[in-house]
Specification:
This protein has a 7-stranded parallel sheet. The chain starts with 18 loop residues before the first helix and ends in a 12-residue tail after the last strand. It is 29% helix and 18% strand. It has 803 residues and is of the alpha/beta class. The longest helix has 18 residues, at 80-97. It has 23 helices and 28 strands. Helix 1 (19-29) crosses helix 14 and helix 12 packs across helix 13 (329-336). The protein has 3 domains: 11-375, Glycoside hydrolase, family 3, N-terminal domain (TIM Barrel), CATH 3.20.20.300; 393-427 and 450-615, Glycoside hydrolase family 3 C-terminal domain (Rossmann fold, 3-Layer(aba) Sandwich); 655-791, Immunoglobulin-like (Sandwich), CATH 2.60.40.
């Protein structure tokens, strides 16, 4: 193809011109074919041969340009420098060999770091939420931004803002848990960290899955969600709205599922009205993978691809991922027939072009291939990963056996997750997704039907360099560690039980590292499309626990899992239970440090921990008429309360609320309320605690939850030290959607609670929002502030830390 360079003086080529003018100028120069190409995408491997860019394969795919390239890093086994080289080659072809020279957006999956062979593997999102430290999630996202940009990436398909209250759903691990406020704080921090202060050096964040995807029937993937309009707005839309209004979110991904009979990819009420008109969102909406065609093939909502194109583009889906399918010939037919307008096409193309100008791609389409190696998985990124892993571990139970003392006797290390690095990683880690590509290439399962993987694509599922729990404990305890796997995660064989029991019987303590194997294939027990009808441990792991407990040796259970798991027997009979989630490449070190007391555990549950599937959904913020069976209360065969409540977590020190007061007994709507709290570390060791602020509206024009999280902050204190926290609580946070579905802050009394979980709390006081007919409606506020300061010791007390 002969390149036609931009005309002299073309506005779109002028870096000093306003973005809106550059978009209009370029759009006016484009043919319909070139416009449609901007709404499409291609798998990176489709333009490769032998791991290198192939002009022969690229020519028919890139001839008219392209909107997105799908996962140069995450859909190949290329090393970081090779990823940059391929990204540059693709951009060079587009810039020099297409008529208008429009670069492409390279997107990657970033649920637990950049899904790339060499990139840092962070803890999975449910573990990040357990830190209750949004600033750490911002640091994680900033590390993702730096690594993606170095490899030539521009858009990350995260954060997952699905509120999840049913841990049967396999993607629970990808979420920030059950509470809309906590999810929003984590989500906004991620968006800001990923996008940075300026998109010319940032990465576009893509909030997903819009909306209610995690509230599916039976916890089943892609199943319908049944969400009445008030619940939808107050719980499930809330984190997305915060990301748009507070975080400056630039992209949204629609959900696979349907709401009240309308698949989300065809729901213009959601995509055009709520998202754009009500919230003022100006970014792009991208499809989830294959989901435009799913309107026809899965939902049977469209009669064919042409109607699927009409419905999706008409509703507001701007870009089809992961490869151009419906937004090609079928979209052309729809435009020819007048089913969807040329104006709607131009709107979608303009949004894609705006992103490309905002990202600076026309001025800097290439990356420095020589610099990428030092930018990807740098020590500073692994340090962030370790800090998150340490703070993500939730000590659920401890009868005093933890921490293990370094000078203690022998330790039996047992379980299928004790010496397998792969099991520390989430479903959107590189190794897990490469397994899925392997399955697709072998044409097994649905993935093989949906995508064609070239036979010459190199596939490497290695987890080399990721230490295991056995590695880290052996470094610290040497030959006092005796290891026996006992069983596999899924395999029903009990052949290893005898060895495990013998090792346990001869030890002073048995550490069982159990749980899940995350991924997308049948070998996985958690992750996308790996939903479970039971919360017991998979395979024969529960039987292994029974066999080891029978030896009489004290048992410590470490759960490496994507969601709450474990039977009554496990949680009742274990001396200690540590939830490690899926802690990533530094997770084994964090686990060993917490077990041995080198780090004081400080993770807190972002999701209620059920006793059994029979009580699902179970969550702290239920209505006053919920959460119990009237009139006896409990189930016939079980308590209605969760095994461990939202916000729960133990440490090796103990904090108490010493004082809690509400400073303003009466305020007007629009004002703020001050809440003062003094907490004391009543233990002898230094530790951290999460001070949590809840409110309750006891009477309103629509029924309200019994408790709502409205603030939280981490505090650190030496043994005996007192710490003061001052919360600023805007009344704009306390509104709800009235009978007309308008956001309102009603006059009335509000109760304020502070504490360390949804159950471990104390009444700080009450205040009244006064009626004021002359004031305009109170705008929604998403968060207040929290200030922490140390206090002097009381006379006669010592702040010394006895470590």
């Amino acid at each position: 193809m002969t390149t036609v360079q931009p005309e002299t003086g073309a506005t779109y080529a002028d870096a000093t011109a306003p973005v809106s003018e550059r978009v209009s100028d370029l759009l006016a120069r484009m043919t319909r074919e070139e416009k449609i190409a901007q709404l499409g995408s291609t798998w990176a491997f489709a333009v490769l041969e032998g791991g290198r860019f192939s002009v022969r394969r690229a020519r028919p795919i890139l001839g008219h340009g392209l909107g997105h390239v799908t996962r140069v890093a995450g859909a190949t086994s290329l090393k970081a420098a090779q990823v940059a080289r391929v990204a540059n080659a693709i951009q060079r072809y587009l810039v020099t060999e297409t008529r208008l020279g429009i670069p492409a957006i390279v997107h990657e999956e970033v649920c637990s770091g950049v899904m790339a062979r060499d990139a840092t593997i962070f803890p999975q999102a449910i573990g990040v939420a357990s830190t209750w430290a949004p600033e750490l999630n911002g640091q994680l996202a900033d590390a993702v931004r730096a690594q993606m940009r170095a490899m030539g990436g521009h858009q990350g398909l995260s954060p997952v803002l699905d509120v999840v209250r049913d841990p049967r759903w396999g993607r629970t691990e990808e979420t920030y848990g059950e509470d809309p406020y906590l999810v929003s704080r984590m989500g906004v921090a991620f968006v800001r960290g990923l996008q940075g202060g300026d998109l010319t050096d940032g990465v576009i964040a893509t909030a997903k899955h819009f909306v209610g995807y995690g509230a599916s029937e039976g916890g089943l993937n892609w199943a319908p969600a049944h969400l009445p309009p008030r619940l939808l707005r107050e719980v499930y839309l809330y984190p997305f709205e915060a990301a748009v209004r507070e975080g400056g979110l630039r992209s949204v991904m629609a959900g696979y599922h349907e709401l009240d009979g309308i698949p989300c990819h065809a729901d213009d009420d959601l995509l055009a009205d709520v998202l754009r008109r009500q919230w003022g969102f100006t970014g792009s909406v991208v499809s989830d993978y294959f989901a435009v065609n799913d309107l026809h093939s899965y939902h049977h909502f469209a009669q064919d691809k042409q109607q699927a194109a009409t419905l999706a583009l008409g509703a507001g889906v701007d870009v089809e991922l992961p490869a151009t399918d419906v937004y090609a010939v079928a979209l052309t037919r729809a435009l020819d027939a007048g089913d969807v307008s040329e104006a709607r096409l131009d709107e979608a193309v303009a949004r894609v072009l705006r992103h490309k100008f905002e990202l600076g791609l026309f001025e800097a389409p290439y990356v420095d291939e020589d610099a990428v190696a030092v930018a990807v998985n740098a020590q500073r990124h692994r340090t962030v990963a370790l800090e998150i892993a340490r703070r993500s571990l939730v000590l659920l139970k401890n009868d005093g056996v933890l921490p293990l003392l370094a000078e203690a006797g022998s330790v039996a290390l047992i379980g299928p997750n004790a010496d397998d690095a792969r099991h520390l990683l989430g479903d959107y880690s590189f190794a897990a997704h490469i397994e899925a590509l392997t399955e697709a290439r072998e044409r097994r399962g649905l993935l093989g039907e949906m995508m064609t993987i070239p036979d010459d694509l190199e596939i490497d599922e290695s987890t080399d360099g990721v230490p295991t729990v056995r590695d880290e404990l052996t470094v610290r305890l040497g030959d006092r560690v005796r290891y026996a796997p006992g069983c596999d995660v899924l395999d029903p064989s009990t052949a290893g039980f005898d060895e495990a029991v013998a090792v346990a019987a001869a030890a002073d303590v048995a550490v069982l590292v159990l749980g899940d194997r995350s991924g997308l294939t049948p070998r996985a027990t958690t992750g996308e499309s790996r939903d479970r009808s039971s919360l017991d441990l998979p395979g024969v792991q529960e039987d292994l626990v029974r066999a080891v407990v029978a030896t009489g040796t004290p048992v410590v259970v470490v759960l490496v899992a994507g969601r709450p798991v474990g039977s009554d027997f496990l949680h009742d009979r274990a001396a200690a239970v540590l939830m490690a989630w899926l802690p990533g490449e530094t997770g084994a070190q964090a686990i060993a440090e917490v077990l041995l007391g080198e780090v004081n555990p400080s993770g807190r549950l972002p999701i209620s921990y059920p006793r059994s599937v029979g009580q699902l959904p179970v969550f702290y913020g239920h209505k006053v008429s919920g959460g119990r069976s009237h009139w006896h209360g409990d189930y016939v065969d079980s308590p209605v309360t969760p095994r461990y409540c939202f916000g729960h977590g133990l440490g090796y020190s103990s904090f108490i609320v010493e004082e809690a007061t509400v400073r303003h007994p009466q305020v007007r709507a629009g004002d703020s309320v001050g809440v003062d709290v003094v907490v004391t570390n009543a233990g002898r060791r230094a530790g951290e605690e999460v001070v949590q602020l809840y409110v309750r509206d006891p009477q309103a024009s629509v029924t309200r939850p019994v408790l709502e999280l409205k603030g939280f902050v981490r505090v650190s204190a030496a043994g005996g030290q007192r710490v003061a926290v001052r919360f600023d609580l805007p009344t704009g946070q306390l509104g709800f959607y009235d009978r007309r579905l308008d956001y309102t802050v009603e006059p009335g009394q509000i109760e304020v609670y502070v504490g360390f979980s949804a159950q471990d709390r104390t009444l700080a006081g009450r205040f009244v929002i006064s009626a004021d007919a002359d004031r305009s409606p109170t705008p929604k506020v998403f968060t207040g502030t929290a200030e922490v300061r140390g206090l002097p010791d009381r006379p006669g007390e010592s702040g010394e830390c006895d470590r």
